[in-house]
Write a structure and sequence with these properties.
Layout: E1 3-7, E2 10-13, E3 18-25, E4 33-39, E5 46-51, E6 58-60, E7 68-73, E8 78-83, E9 92-99, E10 117-118, E11 122-127
Parallel strand pairs: 2-11
Antiparallel strand pairs: 1-3, 3-8, 4-5, 4-9, 5-6, 7-8, 9-10, 9-11
């Protein structure tokens, strides 16, 4: 069983930076593609970023490309999302996700239906 626990969310101002983390437990987690989704109030959950099992390949939504960076430390079973130049539209609950399916599979599109594992989320609020 895999458990994902997010941390690091909070209230920041426009233009600030924030790093959120996802601590994972479970065997063979280093073989999983991991990523982040977010859900803003009254909106559907959407893909933000993903990283391959070995950290070599990363993928981003167009809305965060160039501002957000995903990384992972398999020795610590942790995935990070460094968020720079934050905007009010980045305000959302950010969810960590993990699946054996590589990026490109259907679980990594749209709201992530069928994703194997989800965290409970961490709230990021960006004030204008």
């Amino acid at each position: 069983q895999v458990q994902l626990v997010e941390s690091g969310g909070g209230l920041v101002q426009t233009g600030d930076s924030l790093r959120i983390s996802c601590a994972a437990s479970g065997r063979f987690l280093s073989s999983y593609t991991m990523g982040w989704f977010r859900q803003a109030p009254a909106k559907e959950r959407e893909f933000v970023a993903a990283i391959s099992w070995n950290g070599v390949s990363t993928y981003y939504a167009d809305s965060v490309k160039g501002r957000f960076t995903i990384s992972r430390d398999n020795a610590k079973n942790t995935v990070y999302l460094q968020m720079n130049s934050l905007k009010p539209e980045d305000t959302a609950v950010y969810y960590c996700a993990a699946d054996r399916v590589a990026y490109g599979g259907s679980v990594w599109s749209g709201p992530g239906r069928g994703m194997a594992y989800w965290g409970k989320g961490t709230l990021v609020t960006v004030s204008s």
